[in-house]
Specification:
By secondary structure, the chain is of the alpha/beta class. Helix content is 39%, strand content 16%. It is built from eleven helices and 13 strands. It has helices at residues 17-20, 34-51, 64-75, 89-100, 118-128, 149-158, 206-215, 241-257, 259-279, 307-316, 344-359; strands at residues 6-7, 56-61, 81-86, 104-109, 132-136, 138-139, 144-145, 161-165, 184-188, 199-204, 296-300, 319-320, 332-336. Strand 6 and strand 7 form a beta hairpin. The structure holds pyridoxal-5'-phosphate. The site of pyridoxal-5'-phosphate has 15 residues, from helix 3.
């Protein structure tokens, strides 16, 4: 296994050593001990503050994909309708997941280098009448950030639940779940919270709980069994006390820094990344800087390079960045500057490596 001194992968991000102490502690049983239920409640309150919601917060084991699947299965029964707002791979993914589950799915699609068009989403929603509209706040493979307010209002207008994947923006940019009418919001531990990929976090509105009661999905990844945790002092399974302790350290660090300062640090690092990239002649993948996410920057693989050769040239110099998937594989690469990696000094070192590699 190789370690890279300059880690700028857009998740999983590097875990600060001060959080790692959580894994060196022997805890009691998370099923039985009052301390764990107290920790769960404290983390819920911190997540509510971070994500701008007064609705429920559920924290489960398993990284973010578990709650992407679990929330779709919990909110929709086979035969229900899901409209996926998609300007990237994760947006499209919700339609694929739904179809695999026997849920009817349509997409309101836009190009991967741009943002969804709310007018087209509204038209699609009015004709398809979905039970759930899904959207992705930060499309990590594309490096874009989708404004959520208009989409949330469309969901309200058509009586659909609004499900938002903010896995790679939550903690690095304001999510404002309630102001954006988000009924189900999804976050993972390994992006801007700078933890290993071990926890999923979801926000669930009263309307969403009602749907989940109607669907009544049962399974390891079901949301409903968590509705009265921690009040009922019983967990659906043995929870991950170590990760929950590390989550508390991470959330507390954000509160100590001040959420606005944390978000500003992400924006500054992102702006610096793009400015330095422009200076080296790298081409931004999104159509304009205005639609870029503060947590990740996507660029075209430079002319004259294959992704493999470029990636190897960076890695031999100690820098790891992100490649891509699907239609963007081999063409677009990403610099992740979220969580612990939203650090201007680290980013400067990384961009210096890219500059050196491009000279050869
Ligand atoms: C990282 C991420 C996920 C979770 O996927 P992983 O398997 O953890 O990579 C989901 N949605 C988005 C937008 C992400 O960036």
């Amino acid at each position: 296994m190789r370690e890279y001194p300059i880690g700028l992968v857009p998740g999983p991000v590097s875990v600060p050593k001060k959080y790692a102490q959580a894994w060196l502690t022997d805890f009691g049983s998370s099923d039985l001990e009052a301390d764990f239920f107290d920790l769960y409640a404290r983390n819920q309150a911190l997540v509510q503050k971070l994500l701008g919601t007064k609705e429920s917060v559920v924290i489960t084991s398993g990284e973010a994909m578990s709650i992407l699947w679990g929330s779709v299965k919990s909110a929709l029964a086979p035969g229900d309708r899901l409209l996926a707002v998609a300007s990237g791979l994760f947006g499209e993914g919700f339609a694929d997941m739904a179809r695999a589950l026997g849920i009817k799915a349509e997409t309101a699609a836009a190009e991967y280098d741009s943002l969804p068009d709310p007018q087209r989403v509204r038209e699609a929603a009015l004709s398809f009448r979905p039970h759930v509209i899904t959207a992705v706040h930060c499309e990590t493979p594309s490096g874009t950030l989708t404004p959520l307010k208009d989409l949330g209002e469309i969901a309200l207008e058509v009586g659909a639940l609004f499900l938002v994947d903010f896995v790679s923006s939550g903690g690095g940019a304001p999510v404002d779940a309630d102001a954006n009418h988000i009924d189900i919001g999804l976050l993972g531990s390994q992006k801007a919270l700078s933890l290993p990929p071990s926890l999923s976090i979801s926000t669930i509105s009263a309307r969403a709980w009602d749907s989940m009661k109607r669907v009544n999905y049962a399974g390891y990844d079901a949301c409903l069994p968590w509705i009265d945790v921690p009040a009922k002092v019983c967990m659906p399974y043995t929870h991950d006390w170590h990760s929950m302790t590390a989550l508390n350290l991470s959330l507390s660090a954000i509160m100590e820094e001040g959420m606005d300062n944390t978000f500003a640090r992400h924006s500054r690092t992102a702006a610096l990344c793009r400015e330095l990239a422009r200076g080296m002649g790298l081409r931004l993948f999104p159509v304009s800087e205005a639609i870029c996410s503060p947590t990740v920057s996507a660029f075209h693989v430079p002319d004259g390079w294959t992704w493999e050769a470029f990636d190897a040239a960076l890695r031999t110099r100690g820098l790891a960045v992100g490649g891509n998937y699907g239609p963007l594989a081999g063409k677009v690469f990403r610099v992740g500057h979220m969580g612990s990696q939203a650090n201007e000094e680290l980013l400067l070192r990384g961009m210096e490596v890219i500059k050196e590699a491009l000279k050869k």
